[in-house]
Amino acid sequence: MSDKEVILTQDGLKKLEDELENLKSVKRREVAERIKVAIGYGDISENSEYEDAKNEQAFIEGRVITLEKMLRNARIINADEIGTDAVSVGSTVQVKDLEFGEEMEYTIVGSAESNPLENRISNESPVGMALLGKSRGATVDVNVPAGTIQYKIIDIKK
């Protein structure tokens, strides 16, 4: 993983810090206990509990390293930086699909915070990139695998 800048909202920063704290203080202890118990079962060469615990430990340590690197390279978007004149990271954008007439609302976030199920889309996604910098009333073309979608920007909020 490169030392790429990670753009985070204040909420996103808190979630990553909370996850890191939980991994370091709770999960590490839990998995160490599981390893200790598994070693108590005797021969570790054919011990699936030991193998599972070691794999989980490796995953936790990898995630800790990833989170620490993300937090080190984080650029926090403050509410003052988010305008309502043009779409930026941190903006909540109401758009209308011009083909189907349905309206959707997306919050543009950095890739570390994206969660399409919560309509939090990355500034690096096709929709996010198409909306960035555009103003209320603008029509944007978004190239997606299924073709091109046209959105009209209805509203931009903080």
From TrEMBL:
InterPro entries for the chain: GreA/GreB_C_sf, TF_GreA/GreB_CS, Tscrpt_elong_fac_GreA, Tscrpt_elong_fac_GreA/B, Tscrpt_elong_fac_GreA/B_C, Tscrpt_elong_fac_GreA/B_fam, Tscrpt_elong_fac_GreA/B_N, Tscrpt_elong_fac_GreA/B_N_sf
Coiled-coil parts of chain: 6-33
Entry keyword annotation includes DNA-binding: yes
Origin: domain of life: Bacteria
Domain annotation Transcription elongation factor GreA/GreB N-terminal: ranges: 6-76
Keywords: Coiled coil, DNA-binding, Elongation factor, Protein biosynthesis, Transcription, Transcription regulation
A Pfam family assignment: GreA_GreB
Kinase found in the keyword field: no
Annotated family: Belongs to the GreA/GreB family.
Protein task: Necessary for efficient RNA polymerase transcription elongation past template-encoded arresting sites. The arresting sites in DNA have the property of trapping a certain fraction of elongating RNA polymerases that pass through, resulting in locked ternary complexes. Cleavage of the nascent transcript by cleavage factors such as GreA or GreB allows the resumption of elongation from the new 3'terminus. GreA releases sequences of 2 to 3 nucleotides.
PANTHER family: TRANSCRIPTION ELONGATION FACTOR GREA (PTHR30437:SF4)
Name of the protein described by the UniProt record: Transcription elongation factor GreA
Lineage, opening ranks: Bacteria, Bacillati, Bacillota, Bacilli, Bacillales
Gene name of the encoded protein: greA
